[in-house]
Design goal:
Elements lengths: L1 H13 L3 E3 L11 E3 L1 H20 L4 E3 L9 H5 L2 H4 L1 E7 L5 E3 H27 L5 H7 L1 H22 L3 H10 L12 E8 L3 E4 L7 E4 L5 H6 L1 H7 L6 E10 L14 E11 L4 H17 L8 E5 L9 E9 L2 E12 L1 H10 L5 E3 L4 E3 L2 E8 H12 E5 L5 E5 L10 E5 L6 H12 L5 E3 L5 H11 L3 E5 L3 H4 L1 E6 L5 E5 L3 H9 L2
Parallel strand pairs: 3-9, 19-20, 19-21
Antiparallel strand pairs: 1-2, 4-5, 4-6, 7-8, 9-10, 10-16, 11-12, 12-13, 13-16, 14-15, 17-18, 21-22, 22-23
Helix pairs in contact: 2-13, 5-7, 5-8, 6-7, 7-8
The chain binds adenosine-5'-triphosphate.
Protein backbone atom coordinates (compact mmCIF):
# COMPACT_ATOMS: atom_id res chain seq x y z
CA UNK A 1 0.00 0.00 0.00
CA UNK A 2 2.81 2.38 0.92
CA UNK A 3 4.51 1.33 -2.25
CA UNK A 4 1.45 2.11 -4.34
CA UNK A 5 1.15 5.54 -2.73
CA UNK A 6 4.82 6.31 -3.44
CA UNK A 7 4.25 5.37 -7.07
CA UNK A 8 1.24 7.68 -7.25
CA UNK A 9 3.32 10.61 -5.95
CA UNK A 10 6.27 9.99 -8.24
CA UNK A 11 4.06 9.39 -11.28
CA UNK A 12 2.23 12.65 -10.59
CA UNK A 13 5.54 14.46 -10.67
CA UNK A 14 7.14 12.63 -13.59
CA UNK A 15 4.15 13.12 -15.88
CA UNK A 16 3.47 16.76 -15.07
CA UNK A 17 0.44 16.42 -12.79
CA UNK A 18 1.48 17.66 -9.34
CA UNK A 19 4.66 19.35 -8.10
CA UNK A 20 5.70 20.33 -4.61
CA UNK A 21 5.22 24.08 -4.20
CA UNK A 22 8.44 26.17 -4.30
CA UNK A 23 10.45 23.02 -4.93
CA UNK A 24 13.72 24.85 -5.68
CA UNK A 25 13.58 26.20 -2.12
CA UNK A 26 13.03 22.67 -0.81
CA UNK A 27 9.26 23.04 -0.93
CA UNK A 28 6.57 24.28 1.38
CA UNK A 29 4.99 21.55 3.41
CA UNK A 30 1.44 20.47 2.42
CA UNK A 31 1.26 23.01 -0.41
CA UNK A 32 1.29 21.79 -4.00
CA UNK A 33 1.21 23.10 -7.57
CA UNK A 34 -0.73 21.56 -10.43
CA UNK A 35 1.34 21.19 -13.57
CA UNK A 36 0.40 21.09 -17.26
CA UNK A 37 -1.56 17.82 -17.07
CA UNK A 38 -2.75 18.25 -13.50
CA UNK A 39 -4.37 21.57 -14.20
CA UNK A 40 -6.41 19.99 -17.01
CA UNK A 41 -7.50 17.02 -14.90
CA UNK A 42 -8.44 19.34 -12.05
CA UNK A 43 -10.43 21.60 -14.37
CA UNK A 44 -12.23 18.61 -15.86
CA UNK A 45 -13.21 17.31 -12.40
CA UNK A 46 -14.44 20.78 -11.45
CA UNK A 47 -16.45 21.02 -14.70
CA UNK A 48 -17.89 17.54 -14.20
CA UNK A 49 -19.11 18.56 -10.76
CA UNK A 50 -20.40 21.96 -11.95
CA UNK A 51 -22.31 20.38 -14.82
CA UNK A 52 -23.99 17.85 -12.54
CA UNK A 53 -24.81 20.37 -9.82
CA UNK A 54 -25.55 23.65 -11.63
CA UNK A 55 -26.19 22.93 -15.30
CA UNK A 56 -28.38 19.89 -14.64
CA UNK A 57 -30.45 21.48 -11.85
CA UNK A 58 -32.63 24.44 -12.76
CA UNK A 59 -32.95 25.29 -9.05
CA UNK A 60 -29.20 25.47 -8.34
CA UNK A 61 -27.17 28.53 -9.30
CA UNK A 62 -23.49 29.38 -9.02
CA UNK A 63 -21.54 31.90 -6.99
CA UNK A 64 -17.92 33.03 -6.74
CA UNK A 65 -17.50 34.73 -3.37
CA UNK A 66 -14.21 36.24 -2.20
CA UNK A 67 -11.60 34.46 -0.15
CA UNK A 68 -11.37 37.47 2.17
CA UNK A 69 -14.52 38.16 4.15
CA UNK A 70 -15.51 40.50 6.94
CA UNK A 71 -13.91 39.08 10.11
CA UNK A 72 -17.24 38.93 11.97
CA UNK A 73 -18.24 36.19 9.51
CA UNK A 74 -15.93 33.81 11.35
CA UNK A 75 -17.18 34.75 14.77
CA UNK A 76 -20.73 34.08 13.60
CA UNK A 77 -19.84 30.78 11.94
CA UNK A 78 -18.12 29.52 15.08
CA UNK A 79 -14.71 29.21 13.45
CA UNK A 80 -12.96 31.71 15.75
CA UNK A 81 -14.03 29.79 18.84
CA UNK A 82 -14.36 26.23 17.68
CA UNK A 83 -12.38 25.49 14.50
CA UNK A 84 -9.68 23.67 16.40
CA UNK A 85 -7.69 20.50 16.24
CA UNK A 86 -6.62 18.72 19.44
CA UNK A 87 -2.82 18.62 19.44
CA UNK A 88 -0.44 16.56 21.52
CA UNK A 89 3.35 16.75 21.67
CA UNK A 90 5.73 13.95 22.35
CA UNK A 91 8.08 15.06 25.09
CA UNK A 92 11.03 12.99 23.82
CA UNK A 93 10.84 13.51 20.08
CA UNK A 94 9.38 17.04 20.35
CA UNK A 95 7.08 16.09 17.45
CA UNK A 96 3.53 17.40 17.35
CA UNK A 97 0.54 15.26 16.37
CA UNK A 98 -3.21 15.52 16.11
CA UNK A 99 -4.49 13.51 19.06
CA UNK A 100 -7.61 12.38 17.17
CA UNK A 101 -5.53 11.19 14.22
CA UNK A 102 -3.25 9.11 16.48
CA UNK A 103 -6.34 7.42 17.86
CA UNK A 104 -7.92 6.96 14.43
CA UNK A 105 -4.69 5.44 13.09
CA UNK A 106 -4.74 3.01 16.00
CA UNK A 107 -8.29 2.01 15.05
CA UNK A 108 -7.31 1.71 11.38
CA UNK A 109 -4.79 -0.95 12.41
CA UNK A 110 -7.53 -2.97 14.09
CA UNK A 111 -9.70 -2.44 11.01
CA UNK A 112 -6.85 -3.89 8.95
CA UNK A 113 -6.93 -7.03 11.06
CA UNK A 114 -10.63 -7.38 10.30
CA UNK A 115 -9.98 -6.97 6.57
CA UNK A 116 -7.28 -9.63 6.74
CA UNK A 117 -9.64 -12.07 8.50
CA UNK A 118 -12.27 -11.49 5.82
CA UNK A 119 -9.72 -11.99 3.02
CA UNK A 120 -8.41 -15.18 4.67
CA UNK A 121 -11.91 -16.61 4.99
CA UNK A 122 -12.75 -15.68 1.43
CA UNK A 123 -9.67 -17.47 0.21
CA UNK A 124 -10.45 -20.55 2.28
CA UNK A 125 -14.08 -20.81 1.17
CA UNK A 126 -13.61 -19.46 -2.34
CA UNK A 127 -16.51 -16.99 -2.06
CA UNK A 128 -16.89 -13.32 -1.24
CA UNK A 129 -18.40 -12.25 2.09
CA UNK A 130 -20.31 -9.16 3.05
CA UNK A 131 -17.97 -7.56 5.61
CA UNK A 132 -20.65 -6.38 8.06
CA UNK A 133 -22.31 -9.80 8.04
CA UNK A 134 -18.99 -11.58 8.46
CA UNK A 135 -18.12 -9.40 11.45
CA UNK A 136 -21.47 -9.95 13.14
CA UNK A 137 -21.27 -13.74 12.90
CA UNK A 138 -17.66 -14.20 13.92
CA UNK A 139 -17.10 -13.59 17.67
CA UNK A 140 -13.35 -12.85 17.50
CA UNK A 141 -13.71 -10.36 14.66
CA UNK A 142 -16.77 -8.87 16.35
CA UNK A 143 -14.54 -8.21 19.36
CA UNK A 144 -12.21 -6.14 17.14
CA UNK A 145 -15.14 -4.16 15.80
CA UNK A 146 -16.50 -3.51 19.27
CA UNK A 147 -13.13 -2.27 20.42
CA UNK A 148 -13.01 0.23 17.52
CA UNK A 149 -16.56 1.39 18.27
CA UNK A 150 -15.83 1.90 21.97
CA UNK A 151 -12.63 3.87 21.33
CA UNK A 152 -14.20 6.15 18.73
CA UNK A 153 -17.28 6.74 20.83
CA UNK A 154 -15.21 7.71 23.82
CA UNK A 155 -13.01 10.00 21.72
CA UNK A 156 -16.08 11.61 20.14
CA UNK A 157 -17.61 12.28 23.52
CA UNK A 158 -14.51 13.79 25.06
CA UNK A 159 -13.80 16.03 22.04
CA UNK A 160 -17.47 17.02 21.96
CA UNK A 161 -17.31 18.07 25.62
CA UNK A 162 -13.86 19.59 25.20
CA UNK A 163 -12.74 17.07 27.78
CA UNK A 164 -9.22 16.90 26.48
CA UNK A 165 -7.81 15.14 29.54
CA UNK A 166 -9.79 12.06 28.58
CA UNK A 167 -8.32 12.14 25.06
CA UNK A 168 -4.87 12.02 26.63
CA UNK A 169 -5.99 9.24 28.98
CA UNK A 170 -7.21 7.26 25.97
CA UNK A 171 -3.84 7.64 24.22
CA UNK A 172 -2.07 6.41 27.32
CA UNK A 173 -4.44 3.50 27.93
CA UNK A 174 -4.07 2.30 24.36
CA UNK A 175 -0.29 2.71 24.73
CA UNK A 176 -0.09 4.65 21.50
CA UNK A 177 3.52 5.43 20.63
CA UNK A 178 5.10 8.22 18.60
CA UNK A 179 4.98 6.72 15.07
CA UNK A 180 8.51 7.94 14.37
CA UNK A 181 10.38 7.15 17.59
CA UNK A 182 8.19 4.75 19.54
CA UNK A 183 8.20 7.01 22.60
CA UNK A 184 5.06 7.03 24.80
CA UNK A 185 5.91 10.18 26.73
CA UNK A 186 3.07 12.57 25.89
CA UNK A 187 2.15 16.13 26.93
CA UNK A 188 -1.36 17.38 27.65
CA UNK A 189 -3.73 17.80 24.69
CA UNK A 190 -4.28 21.43 23.56
CA UNK A 191 -6.66 23.02 21.08
CA UNK A 192 -5.13 24.78 18.07
CA UNK A 193 -7.09 27.07 15.71
CA UNK A 194 -6.70 26.15 12.05
CA UNK A 195 -7.42 29.51 10.45
CA UNK A 196 -4.69 31.52 8.74
CA UNK A 197 -4.69 35.17 9.78
CA UNK A 198 -3.74 38.10 7.59
CA UNK A 199 -4.09 41.88 7.68
CA UNK A 200 -6.03 44.36 5.57
CA UNK A 201 -4.77 47.93 5.30
CA UNK A 202 -1.35 49.59 5.12
CA UNK A 203 -0.75 51.29 8.46
CA UNK A 204 -0.13 49.16 11.49
CA UNK A 205 -2.63 51.01 13.74
CA UNK A 206 -5.49 50.88 11.27
CA UNK A 207 -4.95 47.42 9.89
CA UNK A 208 -7.85 45.03 10.26
CA UNK A 209 -7.25 41.41 11.22
CA UNK A 210 -8.70 39.06 8.64
CA UNK A 211 -8.71 35.36 8.01
CA UNK A 212 -8.22 33.42 4.80
CA UNK A 213 -11.49 31.52 4.52
CA UNK A 214 -11.26 27.96 5.91
CA UNK A 215 -14.32 26.88 3.88
CA UNK A 216 -16.28 28.32 0.96
CA UNK A 217 -19.68 27.77 2.62
CA UNK A 218 -19.83 31.08 4.52
CA UNK A 219 -19.59 33.09 1.29
CA UNK A 220 -22.79 31.34 0.26
CA UNK A 221 -24.61 31.96 3.54
CA UNK A 222 -23.90 35.69 3.65
CA UNK A 223 -25.12 36.00 0.03
CA UNK A 224 -28.22 33.88 0.56
CA UNK A 225 -30.73 36.71 0.36
CA UNK A 226 -28.93 38.57 -2.46
CA UNK A 227 -29.05 35.47 -4.64
CA UNK A 228 -32.59 34.53 -3.62
CA UNK A 229 -33.95 38.01 -4.44
CA UNK A 230 -31.94 38.79 -7.58
CA UNK A 231 -32.53 35.29 -8.97
CA UNK A 232 -36.18 35.16 -7.78
CA UNK A 233 -35.35 31.75 -6.35
CA UNK A 234 -38.06 29.64 -4.75
CA UNK A 235 -37.32 27.20 -1.93
CA UNK A 236 -36.00 24.55 -2.31
CA UNK A 237 -33.01 25.96 -4.17
CA UNK A 238 -29.25 25.65 -4.05
CA UNK A 239 -26.16 27.83 -4.41
CA UNK A 240 -22.98 26.13 -5.63
CA UNK A 241 -19.44 27.37 -5.49
CA UNK A 242 -15.91 26.14 -6.13
CA UNK A 243 -12.87 27.89 -4.73
CA UNK A 244 -9.82 27.95 -2.53
CA UNK A 245 -9.93 27.38 1.22
CA UNK A 246 -7.05 27.52 3.70
CA UNK A 247 -6.36 25.53 6.86
CA UNK A 248 -3.22 25.45 8.94
CA UNK A 249 -3.29 21.65 9.10
CA UNK A 250 -0.93 19.95 11.51
CA UNK A 251 -0.99 16.42 10.15
CA UNK A 252 -0.03 17.12 6.60
CA UNK A 253 1.76 14.07 5.34
CA UNK A 254 -0.57 12.56 2.80
CA UNK A 255 0.33 14.41 -0.41
CA UNK A 256 -2.72 16.27 -1.76
CA UNK A 257 -5.12 14.47 0.61
CA UNK A 258 -4.61 17.07 3.33
CA UNK A 259 -3.28 20.40 2.17
CA UNK A 260 -2.93 23.84 3.75
CA UNK A 261 -4.30 25.51 0.61
CA UNK A 262 -6.93 23.50 -1.22
CA UNK A 263 -10.05 23.82 -3.29
CA UNK A 264 -13.59 22.94 -2.27
CA UNK A 265 -16.70 22.31 -4.32
CA UNK A 266 -19.66 23.09 -2.10
CA UNK A 267 -23.39 23.38 -2.53
CA UNK A 268 -25.81 24.70 0.07
CA UNK A 269 -29.40 23.68 -0.53
CA UNK A 270 -31.98 25.90 1.19
CA UNK A 271 -35.11 24.07 2.32
CA UNK A 272 -38.22 24.40 4.40
CA UNK A 273 -37.64 23.53 8.10
CA UNK A 274 -38.84 20.03 8.85
CA UNK A 275 -37.98 18.63 5.40
CA UNK A 276 -34.29 18.09 6.18
CA UNK A 277 -34.50 14.29 6.60
CA UNK A 278 -35.93 13.86 3.12
CA UNK A 279 -33.33 16.16 1.53
CA UNK A 280 -30.49 14.55 3.48
CA UNK A 281 -31.43 11.18 1.97
CA UNK A 282 -31.92 12.76 -1.44
CA UNK A 283 -28.47 14.35 -1.53
CA UNK A 284 -26.76 11.27 -0.09
CA UNK A 285 -28.15 9.24 -2.94
CA UNK A 286 -27.57 11.90 -5.62
CA UNK A 287 -23.95 12.49 -4.65
CA UNK A 288 -23.17 8.77 -4.43
CA UNK A 289 -24.60 8.32 -7.93
CA UNK A 290 -22.35 11.11 -9.19
CA UNK A 291 -19.30 9.33 -7.79
CA UNK A 292 -20.29 5.98 -9.18
CA UNK A 293 -20.93 7.45 -12.64
CA UNK A 294 -17.17 7.80 -13.06
CA UNK A 295 -16.64 4.05 -12.97
CA UNK A 296 -13.86 3.92 -10.38
CA UNK A 297 -15.41 0.76 -8.87
CA UNK A 298 -18.51 0.67 -6.68
CA UNK A 299 -16.65 -1.31 -4.00
CA UNK A 300 -14.37 1.69 -3.43
CA UNK A 301 -17.07 3.83 -1.83
CA UNK A 302 -18.93 3.67 1.45
CA UNK A 303 -20.96 5.97 3.67
CA UNK A 304 -19.75 6.75 7.15
CA UNK A 305 -22.52 8.26 9.24
CA UNK A 306 -21.30 10.55 12.01
CA UNK A 307 -22.15 9.74 15.59
CA UNK A 308 -20.46 12.82 16.90
CA UNK A 309 -22.13 15.78 15.20
CA UNK A 310 -20.59 19.20 14.72
CA UNK A 311 -22.29 22.00 16.62
CA UNK A 312 -24.18 23.12 13.51
CA UNK A 313 -25.51 19.76 12.27
CA UNK A 314 -28.48 17.48 13.00
CA UNK A 315 -27.26 14.75 10.66
CA UNK A 316 -23.99 14.14 8.81
CA UNK A 317 -22.38 11.50 6.69
CA UNK A 318 -19.12 11.16 4.78
CA UNK A 319 -18.70 9.50 1.44
CA UNK A 320 -15.48 7.60 1.97
CA UNK A 321 -13.23 6.40 -0.81
CA UNK A 322 -10.63 3.67 -0.78
CA UNK A 323 -7.40 5.64 -1.16
CA UNK A 324 -4.05 3.79 -1.35
CA UNK A 325 -3.85 4.28 2.45
CA UNK A 326 -7.36 2.99 3.14
CA UNK A 327 -10.94 4.29 3.30
CA UNK A 328 -10.97 8.02 4.05
CA UNK A 329 -13.39 10.92 3.77
CA UNK A 330 -13.82 12.29 0.27
CA UNK A 331 -17.04 14.26 0.63
CA UNK A 332 -19.21 15.43 3.50
CA UNK A 333 -23.00 15.73 3.45
CA UNK A 334 -24.36 17.76 6.35
CA UNK A 335 -27.80 18.75 7.51
CA UNK A 336 -26.87 22.16 8.97
CA UNK A 337 -30.35 23.24 10.14
CA UNK A 338 -30.77 27.04 10.32
CA UNK A 339 -27.63 27.37 12.42
CA UNK A 340 -25.56 29.45 9.98
CA UNK A 341 -28.29 31.81 8.76
CA UNK A 342 -29.47 32.41 12.34
CA UNK A 343 -25.93 33.14 13.48
CA UNK A 344 -25.44 35.63 10.65
CA UNK A 345 -28.77 37.26 11.49
CA UNK A 346 -27.65 37.66 15.06
CA UNK A 347 -24.16 39.00 14.33
CA UNK A 348 -25.14 41.29 11.42
CA UNK A 349 -28.47 42.45 12.77
CA UNK A 350 -29.97 41.81 9.28
CA UNK A 351 -32.87 39.46 8.61
CA UNK A 352 -32.05 36.50 6.38
CA UNK A 353 -35.57 35.20 5.97
CA UNK A 354 -37.55 33.84 3.10
CA UNK A 355 -41.16 34.64 2.42
CA UNK A 356 -42.94 31.46 1.38
CA UNK A 357 -45.92 32.40 -0.79
CA UNK A 358 -47.52 28.97 -0.51
CA UNK A 359 -47.32 29.03 3.27
CA UNK A 360 -47.95 32.78 3.40
CA UNK A 361 -45.27 32.96 6.09
CA UNK A 362 -41.62 33.97 6.55
CA UNK A 363 -39.00 31.63 7.95
CA UNK A 364 -35.26 31.10 8.18
CA UNK A 365 -34.57 28.21 5.81
CA UNK A 366 -32.76 25.03 6.81
CA UNK A 367 -29.67 24.03 4.87
CA UNK A 368 -28.45 20.78 3.41
CA UNK A 369 -24.79 20.92 2.38
CA UNK A 370 -22.66 18.80 0.08
CA UNK A 371 -18.96 19.55 0.38
CA UNK A 372 -16.18 17.84 -1.53
CA UNK A 373 -12.48 18.59 -1.81
CA UNK A 374 -11.39 19.00 -5.42
CA UNK A 375 -7.82 17.99 -4.64
CA UNK A 376 -9.01 14.94 -2.71
CA UNK A 377 -11.20 13.98 -5.64
CA UNK A 378 -8.16 14.42 -7.89
CA UNK A 379 -6.21 12.02 -5.67
CA UNK A 380 -9.08 9.52 -5.71
CA UNK A 381 -9.30 9.55 -9.51
CA UNK A 382 -5.55 9.62 -10.08
CA UNK A 383 -4.57 6.89 -7.62
CA UNK A 384 -7.40 4.65 -8.79
CA UNK A 385 -6.36 5.12 -12.43
CA UNK A 386 -2.67 4.32 -12.00
CA UNK A 387 -2.06 0.68 -12.86
CA UNK A 388 0.82 -1.60 -13.72
CA UNK A 389 -0.24 -4.23 -16.21
CA UNK A 390 1.47 -7.48 -17.12
CA UNK A 391 1.39 -7.91 -20.88
CA UNK A 392 1.40 -11.16 -22.84
CA UNK A 393 5.05 -10.81 -23.86
CA UNK A 394 6.10 -10.71 -20.18
CA UNK A 395 6.65 -6.98 -20.16
CA UNK A 396 4.73 -4.55 -18.00
CA UNK A 397 3.15 -1.26 -18.91
CA UNK A 398 2.24 1.68 -16.70
CA UNK A 399 -1.16 2.97 -17.64
CA UNK A 400 -3.23 5.79 -16.19
CA UNK A 401 -6.79 4.65 -16.81
CA UNK A 402 -8.46 7.98 -16.19
CA UNK A 403 -12.16 8.23 -17.08
CA UNK A 404 -12.03 9.67 -20.62
CA UNK A 405 -14.29 12.56 -19.64
CA UNK A 406 -11.66 13.68 -17.10
CA UNK A 407 -8.45 12.91 -19.04
CA UNK A 408 -6.28 16.00 -19.76
CA UNK A 409 -5.95 15.06 -23.44
CA UNK A 410 -8.69 13.12 -25.20
CA UNK A 411 -6.43 11.92 -28.00
CA UNK A 412 -2.82 12.15 -29.20
CA UNK A 413 -2.08 12.38 -32.91
CA UNK A 414 1.13 10.63 -33.93
CA UNK A 415 2.77 10.69 -37.37
CA UNK A 416 4.46 7.30 -37.83
CA UNK A 417 7.64 9.00 -39.07
CA UNK A 418 8.84 12.57 -39.04
CA UNK A 419 9.00 12.90 -42.85
CA UNK A 420 7.17 12.19 -46.14
CA UNK A 421 4.46 14.72 -45.33
CA UNK A 422 3.04 12.66 -42.39
CA UNK A 423 3.62 15.40 -39.75
CA UNK A 424 1.67 17.87 -41.90
CA UNK A 425 -1.33 15.52 -42.17
CA UNK A 426 -1.16 14.82 -38.42
CA UNK A 427 -0.98 18.52 -37.63
CA UNK A 428 -4.04 19.15 -39.84
CA UNK A 429 -5.98 16.50 -37.85
CA UNK A 430 -5.00 18.23 -34.60
CA UNK A 431 -6.07 21.60 -36.01
CA UNK A 432 -9.49 20.25 -37.00
CA UNK A 433 -10.16 18.46 -33.70
CA UNK A 434 -8.83 21.04 -31.27
CA UNK A 435 -11.93 23.23 -31.61
CA UNK A 436 -13.82 20.65 -29.58
CA UNK A 437 -11.23 18.57 -27.73
CA UNK A 438 -7.88 18.93 -26.02
CA UNK A 439 -5.57 17.06 -28.44
CA UNK A 440 -1.87 16.26 -28.04
CA UNK A 441 0.66 15.98 -30.85
CA UNK A 442 3.75 13.81 -30.49
CA UNK A 443 6.36 12.98 -33.13
CA UNK A 444 9.40 12.06 -31.02
CA UNK A 445 10.68 8.44 -30.66
CA UNK A 446 9.40 5.16 -32.09
CA UNK A 447 5.63 4.87 -32.17
CA UNK A 448 5.59 2.06 -29.57
CA UNK A 449 7.32 4.33 -27.06
CA UNK A 450 4.92 7.12 -27.85
CA UNK A 451 1.98 4.78 -27.12
CA UNK A 452 3.52 3.93 -23.75
CA UNK A 453 4.04 7.61 -22.99
CA UNK A 454 0.41 8.39 -23.78
CA UNK A 455 -0.72 5.39 -21.69
CA UNK A 456 1.19 6.77 -18.73
CA UNK A 457 -0.22 10.24 -19.41
CA UNK A 458 -3.77 8.91 -19.33
CA UNK A 459 -4.69 9.76 -22.95
CA UNK A 460 -7.59 7.45 -23.93
CA UNK A 461 -6.93 7.40 -27.70
CA UNK A 462 -3.92 7.50 -29.99
CA UNK A 463 -4.41 8.36 -33.64
CA UNK A 464 -1.57 7.25 -35.90
CA UNK A 465 -0.95 8.67 -39.36
CA UNK A 466 1.05 6.38 -41.66
CA UNK A 467 1.99 6.26 -45.33
CA UNK A 468 -1.32 4.62 -46.31
CA UNK A 469 -3.13 7.63 -44.83
CA UNK A 470 -1.85 9.69 -47.76
CA UNK A 471 -3.82 7.43 -50.14
CA UNK A 472 -6.87 6.22 -48.21
CA UNK A 473 -7.49 9.10 -45.75
CA UNK A 474 -7.65 6.53 -42.96
CA UNK A 475 -5.75 6.45 -39.66
CA UNK A 476 -5.20 3.87 -36.92
CA UNK A 477 -7.02 4.49 -33.67
CA UNK A 478 -5.53 2.74 -30.62
CA UNK A 479 -7.48 2.44 -27.39
CA UNK A 480 -5.50 3.00 -24.17
CA UNK A 481 -7.32 0.47 -21.98
CA UNK A 482 -7.61 -2.49 -24.36
CA UNK A 483 -4.70 -1.60 -26.67
CA UNK A 484 -7.03 -2.55 -29.53
CA UNK A 485 -6.39 -0.86 -32.83
CA UNK A 486 -8.75 -0.15 -35.66
CA UNK A 487 -8.55 1.61 -39.00
CA UNK A 488 -11.00 4.46 -39.42
CA UNK A 489 -11.64 7.35 -41.80
CA UNK A 490 -10.27 10.72 -40.71
CA UNK A 491 -13.74 12.27 -40.85
CA UNK A 492 -15.02 9.68 -38.33
CA UNK A 493 -12.52 10.80 -35.66
CA UNK A 494 -14.68 13.54 -34.21
CA UNK A 495 -17.55 11.13 -33.49
CA UNK A 496 -15.23 8.44 -32.14
CA UNK A 497 -13.69 10.84 -29.61
CA UNK A 498 -17.08 12.24 -28.69
CA UNK A 499 -18.42 8.75 -28.01
CA UNK A 500 -15.41 8.01 -25.82
CA UNK A 501 -15.79 11.11 -23.63
CA UNK A 502 -19.58 10.94 -23.28
CA UNK A 503 -20.67 9.47 -19.96
P1 LIG B 1 -11.02 16.02 7.57
O1 LIG B 1 -11.82 15.33 8.65
O2 LIG B 1 -10.41 15.10 6.58
O3 LIG B 1 -10.10 17.08 8.09
P2 LIG B 1 -13.24 17.77 7.39
O4 LIG B 1 -14.30 16.90 7.93
O5 LIG B 1 -12.62 18.82 8.22
O6 LIG B 1 -12.09 16.87 6.74
P3 LIG B 1 -14.94 19.44 5.83
O7 LIG B 1 -14.69 20.64 6.65
O8 LIG B 1 -16.24 18.74 5.91
O9 LIG B 1 -13.73 18.41 6.05
O10 LIG B 1 -14.60 19.82 4.32
C1 LIG B 1 -15.25 19.22 3.22
C2 LIG B 1 -14.29 18.54 2.27
O11 LIG B 1 -13.18 19.38 1.99
C3 LIG B 1 -13.69 17.27 2.82
O12 LIG B 1 -14.56 16.18 2.60
C4 LIG B 1 -12.43 17.15 2.02
O13 LIG B 1 -12.68 16.52 0.75
C5 LIG B 1 -12.04 18.57 1.76
N1 LIG B 1 -10.95 18.98 2.66
C6 LIG B 1 -11.05 19.37 3.94
N2 LIG B 1 -9.85 19.69 4.43
C7 LIG B 1 -8.96 19.49 3.44
C8 LIG B 1 -7.55 19.65 3.32
N3 LIG B 1 -6.81 20.09 4.34
N4 LIG B 1 -6.95 19.35 2.14
C9 LIG B 1 -7.68 18.91 1.10
N5 LIG B 1 -9.01 18.75 1.15
C10 LIG B 1 -9.66 19.03 2.29
Amino acid sequence: QDDKFKKVISHAKEYGYVFQSSEIYDGLSAVYDYAQNGVELKKNIRDYWWRAMVQMHDNIVGLDASILMHPTTWKASGHVDAFNDPLIDNKDSKKRYRADVLIEDYCAKIENKIDKEVAKAEKRFGETFDKAEFVSTNPRVLGYQEKIDTILKRMGESLGNEDLADVKALIEELEIADPLTGSKNWTEVKQFNLMFGTKLGASAEHAMDLYLRPETAQGIFVNFLNVQKSGRMKIPFGIAQTGKAFRNEIVARQFIFRMREFEQMEMQFFIKPGTQKKWFEHWKETRMKWHKSLGLGEENYRFHDHEKLAHYADAATDIEFKFPFGFKELEGIHSRTDFDLKQHEEFSGKKLQYFDHEENASYTPYVLETSIGLDRMFLAVFSNALQEEELENNTTRTVLKLPAVLAPFKAAVLPLVKKDGLPEVAQQIVDDLKWDFNIAYDEKDAVGRRYRRQDANGTPLCITVDHDTLNDNCVTVRYRDTMEQKRVKIEELHDIIKQEVDV
